[in-house]
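writing this on my phone so excuse typos. first protein, seq and then structure
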Amino acid sequence: MRNLWFITNPNSGSATKEKCDAIETAFDADGLILAGRTDFPDESLPTGAQLDSAGVDTVVLFAGDGTINAALCALAAWEGAFLILPGGTMNLLAKRLHDTLDPAAIIAAARQSDRQVELPYIMAAEHRAFVGLIIGPAAQWFRAREAVRKRRVFALFRAIRHAWGRTFGKGVRVSGSVKLRRRYQAVFVSPDPGGLDVAGIDARDWRTIAALGWGWIGGDWVDARAVTHTLSAHLRIEGNRPVLALFDGEPHRLEPGTHITRGMSEKRFIETRAQEGMA
C-alpha cells in the first residue's frame, strides 16, 4: 500500500471534513502518496482506468455503507486493493476487517500489512450488498432516515406517515432452500460464509412498527427484533409485483422471481485484525 485514492462522503455518518483532513495528514505521516480524492456523490467515482493511469494500488474508503457499496460495485473489475475505514453509522465492514475503529491506527497497521482477504456479498439481479439486504414494505423507512440526515423536518413527517402505512400492508413473500413463513413486513438478509443469513420481521402491532421504524431512522436495523431466523442457500422473490429492496441502504426495485444468492469477492480487502492463534 503506497499510492492511494481517497473516496469519502462528507454527508454520511462520521465522515466530516475535519476527519477527512486528519486522515490525509495520517497518509502523509506514514509516507503514503495521495494520488487523488473523490467527495461522493458531489464528484463522480473514479474509473479503473483513471486509477491505473494515476498509478494507484489502493483505494481508501471513508464513508457509510451506501457510498462504500457504490464504489465497490463501480470498481468490481479493478484489480487493486481496498482499505475500509469507519466513516458511517454502523461500520460493520470496518469492524469485520480491523481491531480498532481509529482511522489513523488502521492506516498505520495497513502500511505494515500485506494481508488481503475476500468478503462475502449478496447478489440479486445486477445489485450487490456487502453489509445487508432489506426487502419488503418496511424498507420504506429509508426515506425517513434520509430526511433525518438532511435535517428536513417536514419531509421526515411525510416519510414517517408513508412508511407507517406501507409497513402495515400485506408484507413480502420469499421462498428459499429452507421453509419460510409466507409474509413479512421486512426480510433482512446478511452475507454469511455458509450462505444467506435471513431474518424475517413480522410486525403486526403499532409498538413493533414503532420500534422497527425508530431502529431504521437510527441506522441500527441489524438489531431489529426477528421472529424468524434461518440460514438459506438462496432466496426467491414471490408474488406478482416488484418489491422495494435496500442494498446496503440504497433503494432498488426487485422484480417477482428475482433470485438472491451469495457471492464471494476476490482477496482485495486489506485486513489488519489480529489472526486467531497469534499473540
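second protein below, same order as before
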Amino acid sequence: MNIDEALSCISFDRYELIPAIVQDDDSGEVLMLAYMNRHSLEKTLQTGRSWFWSRSRNKLWQKGESSGNIQAVKRILYDCDADTLLIKVHQKGPACHTGERSCFYRSLQLTGGLGNETY
C-alpha cells in the first residue's frame, strides 16, 4: 500500500486531526497520546519517526526534535472506525516532556464500590 492509499483509509475529524496512541512495541506500555494531521502522518510513514500536530502551538513537530527522545515507528494500526491510530514504537529515553517514561504516570483514586466488580 502506498502513502496515498494509506491516507485514504483514515477518517480524520472535522479539524483534520486523528488521535494517535503511542505504545512501546516490546512491553505494550502506553507512552503518550498525541494528534496527527495528514502531513504528520505522511512524514511518519516516510521517515519511520513519529511526527505529530501540536494543537497548542499550531505546528508540526517531530517527537524528540529538541530532547533527542525519538520514537522509531515499528507499526501503525488503526481501529475499526479508522478514526484512531495505534503507533507501536521503540522509544529512546522518556516519552513524556516531564522526564517520565510514559505520560501516564499519575492515577485517580477510585471511591466506593467502583472497580470492584468481577466478571
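Residues 38-47 form the longest helix (10 residues). thats all i got for now
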